[in-house]
């Protein structure tokens, strides 16, 4: 799992990413909104992980941003995931 963010990085990420998460009307919409900001989503061990599109580096979990997977699933519906071969990680289908 990604490590803890320092408070300044966490605050900046929340300013950029959290409005996109809160405005999303579906999982597909969320992916498009994050892509416009240079971010992507992954899932591992039951957690949603924000990553950088340019390098694939994992940044933080949704909970670290104030947007845990449980809350998003309640609002957007359960995400349709495609499980990776390792059995622990997944990507959104579609």
From TrEMBL:
Lineage top rank: taxon: Bacteria
UniProt protein name: Uncharacterized protein
């Amino acid at each position: 799992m990604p490590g803890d963010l320092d408070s300044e990085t966490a605050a900046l990420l929340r300013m950029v990413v959290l409005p996109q998460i809160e405005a999303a009307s579906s999982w597909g919409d969320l992916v498009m909104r994050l892509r416009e900001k240079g971010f992507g989503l992954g899932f591992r061990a039951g957690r949603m992980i924000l990553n950088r599109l340019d390098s694939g580096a994992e940044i933080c979990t949704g909970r670290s941003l104030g947007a845990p997977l449980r809350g998003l699933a309640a609002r957007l519906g359960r995400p349709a995931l495609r499980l990776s071969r390792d059995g622990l990680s997944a990507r959104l289908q579609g």
